[in-house]
Design goal:
This protein is an all-alpha fold. It has one domain. Helix content is 64%, strand content 0%. The protein is built from three helices and no strands.
Length: 74
């Protein structure tokens, strides 16, 4: 199977998607393979946890949301 054949097939597929109203979008996401990824996650979690400690309105909202999930799995 040659590269030209694959490229033509991919182009036909993309053209079909465009025909039904879709468009390609490139999304950049964090690279979980980076050596510093886990530490950055921990750093951000600590910041959020510290902010949550002082946000009583958020705590009340979360408590209410947790109370509202009873019976969801039944």
């Amino acid at each position: 199977m040659g590269t030209k054949h694959v490229n033509e097939r991919v182009q036909r597929h993309r053209d079909a998607l465009r025909k039904v109203g879709l468009r390609p979008v490139q999304i950049w996401v964090p690279d979980t393979r980076r050596p510093d990824f886990a530490e950055e996650c921990r750093r951000q979690c600590r910041l959020v946890a510290q902010a949550d400690l002082t946000d009583t309105a958020m705590r009340q909202f979360m408590d209410g949301a947790l109370a509202d999930v009873d019976g969801w799995t039944e």
